[in-house]
Design brief:
single chain, Rossmann fold, 8 helices, 23% strand, globular
């Protein structure tokens, strides 16, 4: 009698330099630990163009991946929902995994509902925790703008079970490297049959840490007053190696671009440290950063709602506090305080 062990498949994502993203590494290591529990294999899929097999093998090896499938084609340089979906579904049906995990990124939020539909698998998105007891999969996620945390148990009889995870929410244990088997596939893509056409891709000029991957975020609200005042946040962020965010009120006021917006209609983040400067703490903003491990609030209004949700609060003018904070951080970290480049 042959007993088939359950396999876990992870859709990995990479940066422009072809390095695995931090959230992908977190999910891969989490999946490796789960695979060890159930005696299964960990398979990873990477879709893109001009993929470096040697680099991929090294990085996947450190994440404990048994088999990595690289789907490589020049037409995959830019994300195309129609093409990526077909390729992802094809890999899933070929590998027939029990569990499929991915990052709750723009790509994951697009691909996983399609994968759930085509495989008739159960899907839970934007999860923050995971537990696997035998084949019983349970995940946690926040709901109602982070007001509650719910635990959802998958139907053990249904396969596959799909889940996406909020970046920085998983803190996996270290894993032992594996001798990863790398398989490169070069699919033929009939461009003339693709209905969705990409006319132009406008890339950000910023080289800062992406908000969703940042371990530390310092954000400003409407109290920043204008776009130029964000300079003090960027200077402080440079000292900390942090990313800079903004509330919707600040974005709507023209102080920051939408790409910096944190909240219900912006990015959802889970950093180790979130510093809110001049942000009142409306529920819409809290929905995007409520899962931060430590929240520090700086606001001169002692009645601001943010003080009911933060771990540490400073009641004072942010323009007095932040420069002092930067100076003290420079001393603590042994750095020279210089103005950030504009």
């Amino acid at each position: 009698m042959i007993i088939l062990m359950p396999d876990i498949l992870v859709l990995a994502e990479i940066h422009e330099d072809k390095d695995l993203t931090k959230p992908s590494i977190q999910i891969l290591k989490t999946a490796r630990n789960l695979a060890n529990q159930i005696g299964g294999n960990l398979i990873s899929v990477l879709i893109g163009s001009d993929l470096n097999a040697a680099k991929a093998k090294e990085q996947f090896s450190h994440c404990g991946v048994d088999k990595a499938i690289l789907v490589d084609n020049a037409l995959l340089a830019n994300y195309n929902s129609e093409i990526y979906t077909k390729l992802f579904i094809k890999i899933i049906k070929e590998q027939n995994p029990d569990f499929i995990f991915g990052v709750n990124s723009l790509v994951g939020m697009d691909l996983f509902p399609a994968a759930s539909f085509h495989t008739n698998g159960d899907l839970i998105m934007d999860c923050t925790e995971i537990h696997l007891d035998g084949s019983i999969l349970t995940v946690s996620k926040t709901m109602y703008s982070n007001k509650v945390i719910v635990k959802v148990k998958f139907d053990d009889k249904r396969k596959p079970k799909l889940a996406t995870f909020r970046p920085n929410s998983l803190m996996p244990k270290d894993v032992s490297p594996k001798s990863t088997e790398v398989i490169t596939e070069k699919p033929n893509i009939d461009q003339s049959s693709v209905k969705q056409k990409i006319k132009e891709v406008i890339k950000s000029k910023s080289k800062e840490v992406p908000l969703t991957e940042a371990g530390i975020i310092i954000s400003g609200g409407r109290a920043m007053g204008n776009r130029d005042h964000y300079k003090i946040l960027f200077e402080t962020a440079e000292v900390l190696g942090a990313a800079v965010g903004a509330s919707r009120a600040a974005v709507d006021s023209g102080y920051a671009p939408h790409s910096m917006q944190v909240g219900q209609t912006g990015k959802t983040v889970s950093p180790q440290l979130y510093i809110a400067c001049g942000i009142s703490g409306a529920i819409q903003h809290f929905a995007g950063m409520g899962s931060s491990k430590v929240i520090v609030a700086i606001n001169k209004d002692p009645n601001a709602p943010i003080f009911k949700k933060c771990d540490y609060g400073i009641v004072d003018d942010l323009f007095k506090v932040v420069p002092v904070l930067k100076e003290e951080l420079c001393k603590l970290l042994g750095k020279e305080c210089t103005a950030a480049k504009s």
